[in-house]
Design goal:
The protein is of the alpha+beta class. The chain contains seven helices and eight strands, in the order αβββαββααααβββα.
Length: about 200
């Protein structure tokens, strides 16, 4: 602690924390001048244990969220209000063999071929204007030329005070396999119904 007091006596305002019996204490040292010289120090101490614990928990939650985003099988984006990409997760970079610099500042409709770009743009604008989450389906083309079906969720991001929309988050979930299973199930049901009718007519 001596170093903090030495700095304070030299005229520097000091803030530092220390642990005491399980508590985190924030100490402030304010030098007081008289005739151009520091003649005394005013010190104050504040228990910030709960505040520090809340910050640690918040940091842990942020780390968990980042881990989930980076390891997600979905494409996860953050967009600026003009629709340009602010950031994306690793799934996007790996699938389309791109890096962050090649995506940032571009519209998604510029870098990925989709069947209905106007639907994307209309829902993006609605998310901002209506300040509500928009969900819709769309097809995106992969680098190998294959077309995949996706469910898209676009949600407005609010600035401090939750009054102004600050951006948009997007989650794009691949439902191609689900669609194929549904189509196969429908086909099987149609065949079963046909065979049942034929059997009935023969009898």
């Amino acid at each position: 602690l001596k170093q903090y007091y030495e700095k304070a006596w030299l005229g520097e305002r000091i803030n530092y924390e220390y642990e005491c019996n399980g508590f985190t204490i924030l100490v402030s040292l304010q030098p007081i001048y008289k005739l151009g010289y520091v003649t005394e120090l005013i010190g104050s101490a504040c228990d910030v244990t709960e505040h520090r614990a809340a910050l640690v928990k918040a940091k842990a939650r942020d780390e968990q969220y980042r881990t989930l985003v980076e390891n997600s099988e979905d494409f996860i984006f953050r967009f600026h209000l003009d629709g340009t990409i602010a950031s994306s997760n690793s799934k996007m970079y790996v699938t389309y063999d791109m890096d962050a610099e090649s995506l940032k500042g571009k519209l998604l409709t510029e870098v990925i071929q989709m069947d209905e770009p106007e639907k994307w743009e209309a829902n993006f604008e609605q998310a901002i204007v209506e300040r509500k989450t928009q969900q819709f389906g769309i097809h995106l083309q992969h680098p190998d030329g294959s077309e995949h079906a996706y469910n898209v969720t676009l949600s407005p991001l609010f600035a401090d005070g939750e009054t102004e929309v600050d951006g948009v988050t997007g989650t794009v979930h691949d439902i191609t396999d689900l669609k194929k299973r549904e189509e196969a199930d429908q086909s099987n049901r149609a065949k079963s119904e046909f065979l049942a009718r034929m059997s009935h007519e023969i009898r």
